[in-house]
Amino acid sequence: MDLFSCDVLVVGGGGAGLRAAIAVAESHPRLRVAVISKVYPMRSHTVSAEGGAAAVIKAGDSQDAHAYDTISGGDWLCDQDAVEAFVREAPEEMLRLEHWGCPWSREPDGHVAVRPFGGMKVERTWFAADKTGFHMLHTLFQTSLKYDAIQRYDECFVTRLLVDEGRCQGLVAIELATGKVLAIAAGAVILCTGGCGKVFPFTTNANIKNGDGMALAYRAGAPLKDMEFVQYHPTGLPFTGILITEAARSEGGWLLNKDGYRYLQDYDLGKPEPRPVLRSMELGPRDRLSQAFVKEQEKGRTIEGPYGHYVHLDVRHLGEKLIDRKIPFVRELCLKYMNIDPVKEMIPVRPVVHYMMGGISTDIDGATPLAGLYAAGEAACVSINGANRLGSNSLTECLVFGARAGQAAAEGAGQRGEPSPALVAQAQDEQRRIEERFLHGTGGAEKIATLRAEMHQTMEASAGIYRTESTLKEAAGTLEGLQERLPDVALDDHSHTFNTELTAALELSYMLDLAQAIVQSALERRESRGSHQRTDHPGRDDGAFLKHSLAYRSADGRPRVEYLPVKITRWPPGQRVYGR
Amino acid sequence: MPPTVTTVTLDVARYRPEQESEPTVQSYEVPFRKDWVVLDALNYVKDQLDGSLSFRWSCRMGVCGSCGMTVNGQPRLTCAAFLSAEPSGPIRVEPLRYFPVVRDLVVDITDFMRKLKKVKPWIVRNEEKPLAEGEYRQTPDQLDAYKQFSMCINCLLCYSACPIYGLEPSFIGPAAIALAQRYNMDSRDEGARERLQILSEHDGMWQCTFVGECTKACPKHVDPAGAIQQYKLTSAAHWFKTLLPWGMK
Ligand SMILES: Cc1cc2nc3c(=O)[nH]c(=O)nc-3n(C[C@H](O)[C@H](O)[C@H](O)COP(=O)(O)OP(=O)(O)OC[C@H]3O[C@@H](n4cnc5c(N)ncnc54)[C@H](O)[C@@H]3O)c2cc1C
Ligand code: FES
Hints:
Largest interface: A-B, 60 and 62 residues
Number of strands of chain A: 22
Oligomer: heterodimer
Distance between the termini of chain A: 62 Å
Structural class of chain A: alpha/beta
Strand content of chain A: 15-25%
Number of domains of chain B: 2
Number of strands of chain B: 7
Helix content of chain A: 25-40%
Largest sheet of chain B: 5 strands, mixed
Strand order of the largest sheet of chain B: 2-1-5-3-4
Largest sheet of chain A: 7 strands, mixed
CATH architecture of the largest domain in chain B: Orthogonal Bundle
Mean pLDDT of chain A: 96
Bound molecules: flavin-adenine dinucleotide, FE2/S2 (inorganic) cluster
CATH topology of the largest domain in chain B: Fumarate Reductase Iron-sulfur Protein, Chain B, domain 2
Shape of chain B: elongated
Mean pLDDT of chain B: 91
CATH class of the largest domain in chain B: Mainly Alpha
Radius of gyration of chain A: 23 Å
Strand content of chain B: 5-15%
Number of helices of chain B: 10
């Protein structure tokens, strides 16, 4: 085992992690900051984000309007102090990225251009064609290279947080290339490990999105907030789950059922107009659009395909020129992966698991209840996303709260010395666990793929767009059964060099913990709000549930759910109105 | 009528340094599905047949740059290489050429990571504009001047296609040069001079004969060969000017 130390240790090299690391390097140049990531930073999932990132910059827009859209979009479950900080700091963060070289799309006069986005009343979404996340990530990564204070541990997989005397003081990781176990002591740890879409079978999320950081925090005693809120994006390609960005609709695309009818007009989302209308129809919020799909399917008005039912996204009327200028990646993806040219053909789409509103509970500085531990980005729940995130808020969230968490962690870290004997002992335990359990363990007859598939089926059946008590209860039981079978997983691969079967087994164990937290939180929220729709409890119940759920891992491994009031500052709970 | 082909053979290069001193080839029979890419077939192997096969992947949508391998002799993104587009017969899957192999289909890219940093791929300014003064204006035409070079996903197919890199590993290489050019051409940047100095230290660039293999291999139409050509021209001009009595500051 190799021992290292640093002052601030950032886990994750996506948008949030890189922004946090740069914040530390800029504000506290004397501190040693490190970024540890299981993939090279530029491979992080932020790279796949397409549509854009929201921040108020144009005349005619206001931060209050952005806050209102966010809060109503989140069905009043957002913490309003966090939203206020978010909309206030968003423009400066986006400008900073512009100064760092992000190739934002421009207006003819050279100003940054903005586009409309779902649930937003004003056009405020900055974009770099339809590869926004790709450009943001590469800009952040390339900019991070100029800070010598930022040290990197690339392709190192974190398996455990080290907690001693009530404080997180570092972590244990496996260096993939060699299989060496590293123990890194740190004054503060920031988890920026992204979401966990891979808990579900059909998702836009990359293979690496297994919620590792959420599970690490949960196991270390920190609570997970609002895990029942899972966002389905209304437009994924069947089979692959590849996302067709909301930008396709904000540029004027239509959703059509099997009769060629713009069905959203039947779901209180406004009247069909030839041109896109903000906060209306195809530019309604994602939860409502995905729910409308299910209703449409129940009415028999969707199209049946080999990979489930779908509807059509039609952009043909936008013309080749606009498609190539504004959404070229949509065309590329359709051509490459579906053999369909959206200039001439309609795109088959269906709702797909996309984003976790929930995550590691933090305050507005990214601090978790566990001293020394911070979180930011999709892994965290501050919460600005409430019960339903608005598209284009999360990239900006990575910047604003990545920077905040970096600052706060730097201030709280102090200089870190060598790891204490107690930490070293914990790290040795972890090394033993990995060796004995996985590398030398003979295990039983279980396969990773089998358990994963059963988890997937269970989650899709119980925790999808519509949920109900009986299936959730059943799912909780099934997941416990899967947890019991987990120790019987046997690996084919017992080597130390780049053992991806070992990491897949560890990822499965993280995902099972999170699946349990999602199901339990969904079971106990007996109301319908935003993305969490209970057929047995229709309607929002502010009296009982205007609060965040907090899932703690109890000693027997089961989740225990507590609640925390929502912070309301200036926008009392109201009705969500779209298209009216 | 020919029988329906329902499976296809993958001949996969294996190398496990703890077990074997030389790479070997292992064959796997996988279902042939028309909507499957090579990466799906590899995942089928991993999940159902042999958990010990190692390879990198993540996004499965051609943007993270993880899944580059040599497929039937060509550097490809395996998430964009359909089984049905390959000629009939076994499909050969090997690691990217010209990189040291860590294990199976995983190559060591630390050399590229070092080179990337070397070309200073960030905005260099003599004077920073304060954020309070807003954005740098950049017209769509100015954006177009470098946009293409900013599309590189660092998948390294171009290195694997580059005969110069194969012979001369110190060659800074197509993607790094394209990225240097991406910043040089950005109207917000003032670092072209510094980058030029770094690049001219590497004679590899002069060996590039503009065969354009890199541009052909690039899945994102970045055209690194074009960037190298532009670079050669600017550095030749720069070198020529230094010979003139009034020099170039
Ligand atoms: C297809 C798609 C399109 C999207 N489009 C948009 C959009 O247009 N606008 C918008 O606002 N949002 C969009 N989103 C959402 C947004 O992209 C993500 O929420 C955001 O990028 C998450 O960034 P992050 O930094 O939190 O995490 P990620 O970018 O996912 O990074 C996670 C990091 O953690 C590391 N990591 C994880 N586990 C471990 C471990 N065990 N050990 C070490 N390292 C680890 C990974 O290596 C990685 O570096 C989109 C999402 C998807 C899936
Ligand atoms: S898996 Fe991301 S490019 Fe192929």
